[in-house]
Amino acid sequence: MVVKFGLLGPLVVHDGEQPLPVTGPKVRVLLAALLLQANRAVSRDALKEALWGTSVPASADAALANHLTRLRRVLAALDHGSEERLRTVAPGYQLLVHEDELDADVFEARVRAVRHAHRREDWEEVRRETALAMPLWRGAPLADLAPFADTEGPALRVHQLAEARLQALEWSFDAELRLGRHHEAVAPLSTLAAEHPLREGFHRRLMLALHRSGRQAEAFSVYHRLRRSLVDELGAEPGAAVQQAHQEVLTGEPAPRPRAHTGLASPRPPFQLPCEGEAFTGRKAEVAEIRSLLGETTGPHTHIRPVVISGMGGVGKTALAVHVAHRVRDAFPDGVLYADLRGYCVHGARTAHELLARFLSDLGLRHDTLPDDTDDRALLLRAALAERRVLLVLDNVRGAAHVAPLLPAGGPSAALITSRQLLADLPGSVTVPLSPLPEPDQHALLAALAGAERVRHEPEALADIMAACGGLPLALHIVGGRLASRPSWPLALLAKRLTPHQGRLETLTMGTFDVQGTFAMSYVAMRDSEQPLEREAARAFRLLGRVWSGHQLTPQSTAALLDVTETRAAAVLDVLADAHLVLNPEPDRYVLHDLLGEYAWRRGEEEDTEAERTAAALRLLSWYVTALAAASLAATRETQSPPPLERETGVPLSLPEFTDDEEAIRWTAKELPAIRDALTRAGELGRSDMAWRLAVGLFGYAGTHWWTAEWDACLGQAMDIARAHDDTLGQAWLYRRMAVAHGMAFRNEACLAHLRIALELFTARGDVLARASILGNMSSLYLQIEDAERGLAHAELSRDLYREAGNTRGELLVLTRIADARQLVGDLDGAAADCQRAIELLRTEGRWLFLATSLTKYGDILRGLGRRDESFAALTEALGIRHRMEDAGGTADCLVFTARAHHHFGEWDAARATWETCLELARTHNLATRIDESLEGLAALPDAD
């Protein structure tokens, strides 16, 4: 049987493999009107009334013809054009629907079978037929076709179908009670009685189920609540059937004994899967993997390991499990059992003890033969499954202990489990992790739900919607459902409502679909846990959302945020990752999903004080200041650093360790977005001492990334903060570093002006090392503008101050500037000697960034001396370092000197190729000076046009 048309929920057309898009609200209404009268002629007037109500426009005939043409295209795709489904029949049109193709017809046939079995008191048949009927019900019929569904004819049909469903449910609970399944009937009957407070049938059966489960007081409460509702709402007393049930409770009448039945034989294998949603999209790799793991194509004696689908709330675990289970059902001829274990339900999870009773009953073992001990029941289930090939779909599992008693112990039966936990401690299991949907699948899902033509017309709004939903199928289904039920809405309107922190979580709620509620189940369970580590993880989740949502954290930075040790922070992060409350995209790096981050932000706003949040933020900012200072020192080995920040944490900070400057620069580049946010947050909190240290700490990173202008922006922002707080020490360091930034970008006048201000400020502070460094920078600037005399003079002043301070390393590093000055005045031998001494020191210390700069200079000096091979060896080594460090600006510098060397030695083809490589790189990164030099170099070649 393949249901091809669905009315029991949103309108759907399915070709047996996937849903077919039926776009346009009028076409959908037209199809629904024809399906409600399937195989019967529907007049043109009736169709026009369905489409336009009483306000039929003058152009209705032409419009109707257009809508019919579009509908024919959909129907042609249904059968690949092999059959004409929509026929012109006087006085209108007839839609041909075969047996078992319309879900409403199949549903009503099943309900009739339930009715007949109920009359025969064949309770097993009642249960089987109900289990086949209920999965067809996807929601309120024609749920997406208001106001058409509210008109007289469709509304009557919807009421008939809804009443048939409720009646079949009542009959099914008669079967449960007659078969002795009183305990299992209580929970679903409680839900139905709450949903239908005036329906006596559900209340009567709930009273009996409670009474026969030994819960008389609750049974009386149900009766009195029903009576009060009936009297208040209708002015009537409960009917005779309810009064009879009440009398049974009053007299303590025992439950009728179930029909005698022994053994494990079941006349028909159970099939309990929920109905699959019509818009399941993507997950092809996961589907293939799970089907393989479930042993779909293996023999009957193969041992199948439990398969766990694990992921965050709303990521589509249940949908995937149900989708796969429907496709492998033929591989499990002895049945498919399904249970929602409600692992995160606020009303408590379902117990293995309860479910073992249900599963054994489903497989044929009656309650009066069941042991009271859970382990003994588990043994019976394993025995029942040992020689059978049954698939158990166990949904929404809380933990390994929650589900372990329900699993088969080897053999051909299989278990497919969904959980928000990794369940790494579930013996023998294999996990299939589920991530948010990739963009193509998000697009396809929204197109299936809201119409492909509609989403295609607003690509920018569609992109905003997908970004706001973060790839979560739950969020996308809510958005798609809203759009389908509001055909007049532009996508831009919904995109605006999904703006983060401006009502997005409220918008992502529709009926029982609720993103915020889904997240709350995981969070509240952790917050209210009896385990201290889980409660601490809940606090960390709040602080992550309120303080640092959107950026990756490590155990080291998290330790500062929480003011705990790195080991404790790692344990907390692992608890959050196991529960999928944080993502773990790479080893030791954790980040909140965008939607989870907003939810965590709210929890932090409501549950933590402002003082707690501020203290946590300052601890984290102090960690970034200290870690960045360590990275800058590793990258530059600078002889003087800013004074350290006073500690904000109670425990010592755990910092990253860097083996060389390359590793330090890569770390800084990766953390740059977080560092920029930290700088902004420091300003907001009035902490100029943190803000300027963060900007200054980017010095090492800027050596290879100065051309991105990121450092300029951070320095400028920090300077504004320092001035606002009259922070003179911060201003001194910022002027010093801003001068370096200007110099690397060849903004020579600005560089010199900032150096002079910095020199004045540090001189006033009596800081000799700072003066030595700044004079060295002045030397570099004068040499850059080819003023050899002042360049050499300032280099020698810098060297003398380093000697005065006893700083040998600083003194040696000035050698590179003296070498530049000697080269500029033509003393190439002296320049080469000085440069070689500096290179030896830098190579010994592993200072690759400065080594690359010195090798480039050395190669250029050797070029002037005519030592070709040595020149290119130095330049090649420098270029290799630049490439390895992904230093675009430094690479361009090195290419300029290499091209000049080729030109000098008459190697025209090599010079041209090098200039062209440099030009392409410079244009890619907008390096204006290098663009000009490359063009001039190409023009200077002998064969240039």
Give an overview in words:
Helices cover 62% and strands 6% of the residues. The chain is mainly alpha-helical. The strands form five sheets. A five-stranded parallel beta sheet has the order 8-9-10-7-11, sandwiched between helices. It is elongated and about 115 Å long. The longest helix has 27 residues, at 152-178. Among the domains are: 1-179, Arc Repressor Mutant, subunit A (Orthogonal Bundle), CATH 1.10.10.10; 181-254, Serine Threonine Protein Phosphatase 5, Tetratricopeptide repeat, CATH 1.25.40; 284-433, Rossmann fold (3-Layer(aba) Sandwich), CATH 3.40.50; 439-511, no CATH class; 662-745; 869-945. The chain is built from 43 helices and 15 strands. The model is unreliable at 260-266 (pLDDT under 50). Helix 22 (515-527) crosses helix 23 (532-548).
Task: Give a topology summary.
Elements (H helix, E strand, L loop, with lengths): L4 E2 L5 E3 L4 E2 L4 H12 L4 E3 H9 L7 H19 L7 E4 L2 E4 L7 H18 L2 H11 L18 H27 L3 H14 L4 H13 L3 H19 L5 H12 L32 H10 L13 E4 L6 H12 L7 E5 L11 H11 L11 H13 L4 E7 L2 H4 L10 E6 L10 E4 L5 H12 L1 H5 L2 H11 L3 H13 L5 H7 L6 H4 L1 E2 L2 E2 H13 L4 H17 L6 H8 L3 H13 L4 E4 L2 E3 L2 H14 L2 H27 L24 H24 L3 H9 L2 H7 L4 H15 L3 H17 L3 H17 L3 H17 L3 H18 L2 H6 L1 H10 L3 H18 L2 H17 L3 H17 L3 H17 L3 H17 L3 H12 L6
Parallel strand pairs: 7-10, 7-11, 8-9, 9-10
Antiparallel strand pairs: 1-2, 2-3, 4-6, 5-6, 12-13, 14-15
Helix pairs in contact: 1-3, 4-5, 4-6, 5-6, 6-8, 7-8, 8-9, 8-10, 11-12, 13-14, 16-19, 18-20, 22-23, 23-25, 23-26, 23-27, 24-25, 24-27, 27-28, 27-29, 27-30, 28-29, 28-31, 29-31, 29-32, 31-32, 32-33, 33-34, 34-35, 34-37, 35-37, 37-38, 38-39, 39-40, 39-41, 40-41, 41-42, 41-43, 42-43
